[in-house]
Amino acid sequence: MAGLRQRKKQAAMRHIQHTAFALFEEKGFDNVTVEQVAEAADVSQSSVYRYFGTKEGLVFRDEYDDAVFGMILAELESGATVLGALDKGMGGMIEEHFHHDRDITLARTKLWASHEGIRAAVGLYLTKLSERVVEAVVTGGRYDEMEARFIVAALLNGMLSATLSWQKAGASRPLEEYMDRGLSALARVFRED
């Protein structure tokens, strides 16, 4: 269970993000500034930057990121399998994002998929994140650095592809189905060769 400080941070991030999305819907993403988001959310601009880094981060970052990736990294560093660590870490996030917060997640994904600047920011964020995940995989002792880089790149890009497919299909089926189908297809590729 998250402590008081963590819960306050999560609530603040959620409030800022919901405020930003109302502005994006009203005015369009390109026509909204961080200053406008901060003013509408009644927070300082520095709070927006501290929690989200950039305006684009308002779309793809959220209050779950640190907890989810912290759990995944801890699992990997302790020697858990890559898929086991992802399953444990992502399970709660998928429940929160794609079931409880389905509508905002769908709106976020749609905006992310349609805006080049957001896609570029996601790419940079995932590049930084993948370095941490690679280190954790190597620390876990199952793979060397080259193998870990390949595995992490394949899984992160696969998760992005599954999320985009989920969004393009109107979120008509659970995200887990898209991820499972992608992993099954990848397994078939390796069996065929």
From TrEMBL:
Alphabetic keyword roster: DNA-binding, Transcription, Transcription regulation
InterPro entries linked to this entry: Homeodomain-like_sf, HTH-type_TetR-like_transc_reg, HTH_TetR, MftR_C
PROSITE patterns, A to Z: HTH_TETR_2
Pfam families: TetR_C_14, TetR_N
GO MF annotations, alphabetized: DNA-binding transcription factor activity; transcription cis-regulatory region binding
Keyword Lipid biosynthesis tagged: no
Top-level taxon of origin: Bacteria
Residues within the DNA-binding region(s): 33-52
All copies of domain HTH tetR-type, residue ranges: 10-70
PANTHER family named in the record: HTH-TYPE TRANSCRIPTIONAL REGULATOR BETI (PTHR30055:SF234), HTH-TYPE TRANSCRIPTIONAL REGULATOR RUTR (PTHR30055)
Name of the protein in question: TetR/AcrR family transcriptional regulator
Organism: Arachnia propionica
